[in-house]
Amino acid sequence: MAEIGHGGKEIRERILAPEEAAAKVRGLPRIPVRSQIANEIIDIAYGWFCPLEGFMGQEDVEAVCSRMRLKDGTVWSIPILFDLSQEEVAEHGIKVGDSLCLTYHDQPMAILEVEEIFTYDKGAMCQAIYGTTEEKHPGCARTYGYKDVFLAGPVTLVNRPVINPPFEPYFIPPLEMRKRFREKGWQRIVAHQTRNVPHTGHEWLMKGAWLQTYAELPIEKPLVGVLVNAIIGEKRKGDYIDEAIILTQDELKKAGYFGDHNHMTSLTFWDMRYAGPKEAVFHAILRTNLGLTHHMFGRDHAGVGTYYGPYDAHRLLATVQDELSITPVYSMNWLYCPHCGEITSEGLCNHRDEWQKFSGTVIRSIVQDGVKPPRLIFRPEVFELVLECAEKYGFGSPFVTDEYLAKRTPVFTIPPLQA
Ligand SMILES: [Zn+2]
Q1: What region holds the Sulphate adenylyltransferase catalytic domain (predicted)?
Q2: Where along the chain do its domains lie?
Q3: Residue-wise over 155-165: b if at least 16 C-beta within 10 A, else e?
Q4: pLDDT of residue 376
């Protein structure tokens, strides 16, 4: 059965069989890639980036910047680029028509067939995608960090990544994910994008979205699922550690706040661009390819600082809604009302003066102090697990430290290629 992804194109994995792979990489120039590019190679090869089959050429980049589309008209909001320096191009004598063996930590990972070599004005790209050219915008900083020359062309994985513990069960590529959704009998699945350990406000974001997504469907057996899809990419100091994020999200199900009938946790490799509205459209595309039918978007989705208005993403999504095959679910804000004695939404009860909003800072200080918080703020099982993760994976901290960055086990490794 053909699995149709974004843009109406069939999702096909681009992965060579081991016997074929060894022969194909023999003699090719070996080009090391950094983690961002390795993440994107995985996304291309497994279909997260469908309809892309490789890194973008100049016409696609131009169309994405000027029209938020690929050159063929398919909605696409963020350029996917492979960069090299002039020196590297010269050193290997790389020209159009060549194939390159891309390596990650010295192991062959993928073949790039070079169809195009080009340059692009990074400032113009920043303005078009991020709405600013300021270097302090993390997306701009990433763009300015690209080397000077871009290489475009199809990418094929020669070596599957090995997903290291505790992440293995959560790496579920698009084709496998769609199979699991069918097995569960879910007719609608709503995506929850996260880089957080869940407090009850997050839990209710998901429960609210589940109710919104359920709508008029019959209730005899559960037909709607929430897919937590954690973004795993470059870490910054002070972020929650990846292990704590993924395991605590899953714990909400294991501890019964959700169940197998309506909840699943998974990951996507992606380095956040913080492109706000443009990134919201991009997340919708990623999750379409994963087989989701609905996607939660809260206030200032994937935003940073004060670059984007709280509902800019909702407005941009509305302009392309007809071309996306995923329905946005605009999430309400959940908070704790001591008068009601429960979690409620801004649109529900009217004890405005008593509301206690979830503040990231307060939650962080609770976690930092390790003093057990009220169960209406943090589920005890989740809280215990955060502390456990800090010990087991975080060198004593649930937040990213220099030590974590230096010594953590990588989420995936590329094994030696079998000859
Ligand atoms: Zn109330």
Answers
A1: 170-388
A2: 6-160, 168-410
A3: bbbbbbbebee
A4: 87
Q: What are phi and psi of 152, to 5 degrees?
A: -115, 155
Distance 235 CA to ligand 1 centre (A): 37
The predicted model scores a pTM of 0.96
pLDDT for position 86? 96
Q: Give average pLDDT by consecutive 10-residue segment, the chain, 419 residues.
A: 95 95 96 98 98 98 98 98 97 97 98 98 98 98 98 98 98 98 97 94 95 94 96 94 98 98 98 97 98 95 94 96 96 90 91 90 84 89 96 96 97 91
Please state whether beta strands 294-297 and 327-330 pair in parallel, antiparallel, or not at all (unpaired): parallel
How far away, in angstroms, is 340 Cα from ligand 1 center?
4
Which whole-number Å values give the CA distances from 211 to 5, 195, 265, 300, in the listed order? 26, 22, 18, 22
Give distance in angstroms: CA of 358 to centre of ligand 1: 15
Distance CA 252, CA 262 (A): 11
Other beta carbons within 10 Å of 48? 26
Rounded to the nearest angstrom, the distance between the alpha carbon of 334 and the centre of ligand 1 is 11
Q: One fold for both 6-160 and 168-410? A: no
Rounded distance from Cα 348 to ligand 1 centre (Å): 8
Nearest Cα to 268, choosing from 155, 162, 163, 172?
Answer: 172
Neighbours of 38 (CB within 10 A): 22
Q: How much distance in Å is there from the Cα of 347 to the middle of ligand 1?
A: 11
405 vs 139, 242, 273, 401, 410, CA distance in Å? 21, 11, 20, 6, 9
- DSSP class of 372: P
Q: What's the rounded Cα separation, in Å, for the pair 278 and 273?
A: 9
Query: What distance in angstroms lies between residue 206's CA and the mean position of ligand 1's atoms?
Result: 20
Residues 253, 265: Cα–Cα separation, whole Å: 9
Measured over the CA atoms of residue 253, residue 259, residue 263 and residue 268, the dihedral's sign is positive
One of 3.10.400.10, 3.40.50.300, 3.40.50.10420, 3.30.160.270 is the CATH number of 6-160, namely: 3.10.400.10
Question: Domain 168-410, CATH 3.40.50.620 — does that match?
Answer: yes
| Predicted pLDDT at 359 | 80
Dist. CA 346 → ligand 1 center (Å)? 9
